[in-house]
Amino acid sequence: MLTDHERASLVFEELLQKSDEITHVFFKKVAGIPFVYLQPEEGTTQKDVEEILKWCASKAMKGKRLTLAMSYVRKNQALYIYRVRFLVPQRKMFCCGNLCDDCIRFTDP
After folding, report:
1. All domains of the chain, ordered by start, with CATH?
2. What string of pLDDT tens digits covers the 109 residues of the chain?
3. d(Cα 49, Cα 66) in Å, to the nearest integer?
């Protein structure tokens, strides 16, 4: 069974590969950090590429409690390289005894 994070990553990859504005896309993990290598269609600007990435990520995150961390790394010849990660929000897993407002004791399982 896949987690929301894994499911969102798969949907994101699928949407990018089906995009008409992207000629070639591949994903690579370096030291555990995911990178996306994109070759856009002729005449596509970097702003357009970022909009495509954000649109695909928003569709992948829909209905899930995830946030997007995306940053431009560099342009290597015809490829744009981005670091794209889906972040899971932090949530307390136990009561620390400090009477916190968001204590796990006050939430429904």
Report:
1. 4-87 (3.30.980)
2. 777 888 888 999 999 999 888 899 999 988 888 899 999 988 888 999 999 999 999 999 998 888 888 999 999 888 999 999 888 777 666 778 887 777 777 665 5
3. 21
